[in-house]
Each structure stands twice: as structure tokens, then as C-alpha cells.
Amino acid sequence: MRQQGRYITLPVAGDAIENGQLRWNSTDGWRFAIVRDGVRFVIVIGDTDTPSPVLVTGWTEIADWEAATASERWDDADVNTIQLRADLSEHKERQIPGRIRPRVVTRPFAVGGHHVHTAAGDGHVECVDCGARFRSKRELCELPCGAH
Questions:
Q1: Domain range for 5
Q2: Is the pTM for the entire model greater than 0.90?
Q3: pLDDT in tens, 37-60
Q4: Which end of the chain lies in a sparser environment, N or C, as judged by fewer CB atoms within 10 Å?
Q5: 19 within 8 A of 12, measured Cβ to Cβ
Q6: What single-letter DSSP state applies at residue 78?
């Protein structure tokens, strides 16, 4: 949950649970979602039968590109990181150079043991630790980082 690029904090999780929309119950738990400044925060909660529910995971998605880029809360790197992470997760089994190419992510974020970034026009993400290049989340998760 606290990985670079997820933008999920305990106050955000609390806000989503208290004020957000219950989206659906899936095998991993109850999902709550709330949109703030153009970004949708999705929180997955397990064990809702106790007074202290378990936070399973959380992620962000761009709900409104114009609102996110206009917001003072997010800079261009944040918005591009959120979109790139969402694209990698949505299409994890296939290579997505066309979705990576328009993104500019200068602050590395963690995926599958790698810390990746990308530049405009690159059809891949690159690990800042080992220098390997990837075009899918599957590759990021299957190939270990050579720097560790």
C-alpha cells in the first residue's frame, strides 16, 4: 500500500471508507472508492465483521484527467505515474509500449521488485537499479532485479 506511486495513505483510506462509495464485494474483500481532485482512490478491506477492519490493498486511477492536471494536489509526474501504474495493472499480461510512450515519470516507483521510470517517447519503463527495460507488468514481476 505504501509503495511509491500508489498515493494511498491511512487518512485517504479512512476517507474512502467513511465517505466513499461501496463498489463491490470480490474475493479479496469489500472495495470502497472516492474521487478527490480528479483521482479515484480504491481501498480493499477484509474482515469487515470486526471493529478493526483489515486494509488489504489500495490503488489510484485517473477519474478525470483535466481535473487531476488542474489540481494543485497533483503535479505532472504524479498524474503520469498514476496513469502508467494503472495501465500496467490493467494490461499486465501483454506489452503496452503505446500506453507507456506518452508518459513522463521522473520519480521511480516500485513494481515487482524494480524501481522504474520512463521518458517521453520511450515505449518501455526502465529500472533505475539494474537498468533492465520492460514493456509489461508480467515482465516486471517475473524477472528479478539484477541489482538486488
A1: 1-72
A2: no
A3: 999 999 998 866 677 778 888 999
A4: C
A5: no
A6: H
